Amino acid sequence: xxxxxxxxxxxEPPTEPLTEAQAERMFADMNDVIRAGEExxxxxxxxxxxxxxxxxxxxxxxxxxxMSQPAVSKQVTKHKGDDPSPPPRLSLDQHDTPWLEGRLxxxxxxxxxxxxxxxxxxxxxxxxxxGRKHFTPQNVDELRRLVEEDxxxxxxxxxxxxxxxxxxxxRALDTPAPSTATPTESPSARRTLARQIQRANLxxxx
Length: 206
Fold this sequence. Notes:
By secondary structure, this protein is mostly helical. It is about 65% helix and about 0% strand. The protein contains eight helices and no strands. It is globular and about 50 Å long.
C-alpha cells in the first residue's frame, strides 16, 4: 500500500518577526490581565466582609456573588478576629478622593449607556471595568475631560441630574478634603461602593 503523503505543513515563520516593542506590549497586556484578576479577587473578598458587617446573611451574599455559601463563610470567618470596624457610610456626600473617583466612574458609565457609541467616555469606562485603567491623577483628569465633553455635546440627551452630579464631583475633587476620620475600606472598595450608589441615585432621579 502506498504511503499517504503527509499533507501537513510546517508553519512558515512570519516574514517580519515581532519587534521588542511589540513583544513588550504583549507581555504588558497579559500582566495587566493577571494583575486585574488578583486585584478583583482581593476586592471581592473585602466586599464580602463589608456586606457581612452591614448585616447581610452569608446565604444572601453567596446568592448575589455567585459563590458557594462555604466559600463566603471562609472569607467572613478569616477576619472574624480582626478589630471590628464600623459599617461604611453609604451617602453620596463624602469627600475622600477614592469616593469621588467612584462617583465620577459611575456617572461616566451612566453617560456611556445612555449615549451608546456616541459617548466619548465609553472606551475609558470599558478599560476601567477590565482593570486596564487605574485611577491615577492623570487618568482621573482624562475621565473628567471626557465626561465634561459628553455633557457639553449631548446636553439635550442627558438628564439634568448628570450635569448636577458632575459639577458636585468636580468641585469636591478640586477642593481639599475636610479633615475627617480615615475610612477603613480600601480605595478600591470605596470606588466600587460610590460607583454603584451614584448610578442608583442617577436612575432614581431620571
